[in-house]
Amino acid sequence: MADELKTPVENAEMSSNFIHTFIEKDIAEGGDYCGKKVHTRFPPEPNGYLHIGHAKAICVDFGTALKFGGVCNLRMDDTNPTKEDVEYVDAIKEDIHWLGFDWEDRFYYASDYFDKMYECAVELIKKGLAYVCELTPDQMREYRGDLSTPAKSPYRDRPIEESLRLFEQMKNGEIEDGKMTLRAKIDLASGNFNMRDPVIYRMNRLHHHRTGDKWCIYPMYDFAHPIEDAMEGITHSLCTLEFEAHRPLYDWVIDNCTLPAKPRQIEFARLGINHTVMSKRKLRALVEGGYVSGWDDPRMPTLCGLRRRGYTPRSIRIFCDRIGVSKVNSTVEYAFLEHCLREDLNMTARRVMVVLDPIKLVITNYPEGQSETFEVENNPNNEADGNRAITFSRECFIERGDFMEEPIKKYQRLYPGNEVRLKSAYIVKCTGCKKDDDGNITEVYAEYDPETRGGNTPDGRKVRGTIHWVDAQNYVPVTVNLYDNLFSVAEPEANGADFLDSLNPDSLSVQSGCIAEKSIAEYDAPAHFQLMRTGYFCLDKDSTKENIILNRSVSLKDGFKK
Ligand code: ATP
Ligand code: MG
Questions:
Q1: Is 75 a pocket residue for ligand 1 (Cβ < 6 Å)?
Q2: How are strands ordered across the β-sheet holding 130-133?
Q3: Cα separation of 188 and 145, whole Å?
Q4: Which residue among 84, 221, 328, 387 has the highest number of C-beta atoms inside a 10 angstrom radius?
Q5: So what's the pLDDT on residue 80?
Q6: Which residues pair with 444 in a beta bridge?
Q7: What pLDDT does residue 4 have?
Q8: Looking at domain 476-555, does it have CATH number 2.40.240.10?
Q9: Cα separation of 184 and 197, whole Å?
Q10: How far does the centroid of ligand 1 lie from the alpha carbon of residue 44, in Å?
Q11: How far apart, in whole angstroms, are the C-alpha atoms of residue 394 and residue 134?
């Protein structure tokens, strides 16, 4: 299990929000939950991989429990048998653990309660609070009414005994699929359409991944969810805003069925992020359409994608905490997520030198066959990360862009006659370059100043540019994946647009033949690095000692405007 789990302190110290204020009142003297341990749950539907929106819900559900010394259950919402897959269940567990949260032995399936739900449905019929309705879906829509006209159903007043018998026949599969439903008898004239005798059970001869063919009736979410919560003794059922108008139904189910607890539903805003889409259905379309390499493609907003991209659990928790919990849906800038990652990696990532677009620099006055070593810091923000040795010799690789034969204005790197600092090594002065027959530059030449070892200028002369380099005698080749937004527009779905139309064709650029200092080969994925001037990178999960692959997690330049 993740090391992070040993220090979930930050989560217990989660910033205060309106949910906490409600709970504080609830558990205080005289409150509805006085003396009770705060008990929450995270209820994903296992029909895809978790995304950053789920991370917010996880931080709210688990974080709130931690804050109050309570507990949080993990429950697979598998009431809809069409889409579930065991692969997703395992991935969901892995992602939650990775984020740093744990449900211990409180792992459940909604389908664990199918018997209880059936029992509750029968109880409602017996109390005259539910009836079997034979309206077709089309008729149901037609009879739905509007704000000034109540809904209607000719089956509403059918005798209790008849509903009981028909419901039993539905359960036994003696009724055709779609022919009958069980509806709660609440209020056909309600201004809240969720209360206009909602369907609570429908027929569906579908195989269920856990209950097999035992059931051919399945409960609707609005009926099932409060029962699941009550059965697990949940005190606070935290969910997203779209369930606000369903709360009266949630409470109605709790009040009218015999259940062991009375949970309280509290809604908060969904997270949206620009330049991406955030629904499992759409993310699945990207995977199945081959637009990305899989659910864990580093461009995906899935937790496994972000992990592969180099996001740390802490950076995501910091992000979820800072965006806050509110009652208003809003879209957060992707740049803010990146900002949180930079902040975390700046403290923890090891510094290494990698040249992405190499060209050879020859130090013509450095003796052939000679070589020396420099001790450099692994991480200036953490002395405990120690030093490493890097070698230097007559030839090294630098970025092609760090030399210009004819410099543009304000260019401070290598051009004939100019001095730059080779990071941690020497000051060198450019003397020229070599070109091939087509005029392409193939080598750059410079002379070093032996008095400037370590990059210092004893005479105090000003050297403006500092560039990174890798010893040409001592390096490993690496492949580097550079990423850009998956969607080229900020709102891929604005005005009903098809998100597939704004996929960014340049969201991945693979650079092979990059040159890295050898120390990089000592790490295992997902080691995080800061490469001078080019960004934060991590080792890809498919990286091997023979074929090193680096993914750029985020560039160094912070695009987030505070
Ligand atoms: P999706 O459309 O991605 O499938 P969902 O809401 O149907 O989203 P569930 O698996 O049912 O996904 O979600 C589990 C929990 O995560 C729910 O409580 C839901 O409210 C929450 N959740 C899902 N998406 C977001 C989001 N973007 N922001 C905050 N919470 C979310
Ligand atoms: Mg869903």
A1: no
A2: 130-133, 181-184, 199-203, 217-219
A3: 9
A4: 84
A5: 87
A6: 361, 433
A7: 41
A8: yes
A9: 5
A10: 7
A11: 87
How far is it, in rounded angstroms, from Cα 510 to Cα 480? 6
Q: Amino acid identity, residue 306?
A: L
Q: Which among 261, 146, 250 is positioned nearest to 193, based on CA atoms?
A: 146
Main-chain dihedrals φ then ψ at residue 337, nearest 5 degrees: -60, -45
Q: Which residues surround ligand 2, an ion (CB under 5 A)?
A: 45
Question: Does any ligand 1 atom lie closer than 6 A to the CB of residue 280?
Answer: yes
- Domain 2-111+223-338 in CATH 3.40.50.620? The answer is yes
Give the span between the Cα atoms of 379 and 96, in whole angstroms: 29
* Coil/strand/helix, residue 368: coil
Nearest CA to ligand 1 atom 22: 54
Half-sphere exposure of 110 (CA within 13 A, CB side): 26
DSSP 490: S
What type of residue sits at position 479? Answer: T
pLDDT tens, 288-336?
A: 999 999 999 999 999 999 999 999 999 999 999 999 999 999 899 999 9
Whether omega before 226 lies within 30 degrees of 0, making that bond cis, reads: no
- Name the active-site residue from 10, 45, 123, 168: 45
Identify whether the C-beta of residue 259 lies closer than 8 Å to the C-beta of residue 230. yes
Mean per-residue pLDDT for 90-104? 97
Residue with tokens 């109390």: 127
290 CB-contact burial (10 Å; exposed 0-12 / middle 13-18 / buried 19+)? exposed
User: Which residue from 471, 481, 477 is spatially nearest to 547, judged by alpha carbons?
Assistant: 477
How distant, in Å, are the alpha carbons of 71, 76, 534 from that of 106? 9, 11, 44
Lookup result for tokens 């080019």: 534
15 C-alpha vs ligand 1 centroid, how far in Å? 22
Identity of the residue numbered 497 = A
Q: Binning pLDDT at 50, 70 and 90, where does residue 561 land?
A: low
- Beta carbons within 8 Å of 536's beta carbon, 6+ residues apart: 310, 341, 342, 345, 349, 528, 529, 530, 552, 553, 554, 555, 556
DSSP-based three-state secondary structure for 371: strand
Examine the residue annotation and report whether 45 is marked as an active-site residue of this protein: yes
The half-sphere exposure of 279 on its side-chain side, counting CA atoms within 13 A, is 6
Superfamily of domain 114-218 in CATH is Glutamyl-tRNA Synthetase; Domain 3 (3.90.800.10)
Tell me: domain 359-473, CATH 1.20.1200.10, correct? no
Q: What is the CB neighbour count within 10 angstroms for residue 167? A: 24
Which residue is listed with tokens 């990071």? 423
Say which residue the tokens 């677009």 belong to: 357
Q: What is the largest CA-CA distance in the chain?
A: 103
CA–CA distances in Å: residue 257 to residues 36, 127, 129, 246: 21, 10, 10, 17
The residue among 183, 266, 185 whose CA lies nearest residue 229 is 266
Pairing of strands 181-184, 130-133: antiparallel
Predicted TM-score (pTM) of the model is 0.94
Ligand 1 pocket test, pick from 240, 268, 281, 295 with the greatest ligand atom count within 8 Å of Cβ, gives: 240
Q: How far is the CA of 45 from the centre of ligand 2 (A)?
A: 6
User: Kindly report the CA angle at 170 between 165 and 174, in degrees rounded to 5?
Assistant: 95
Residue with tokens 């005994």, as numbered in its chain? 161
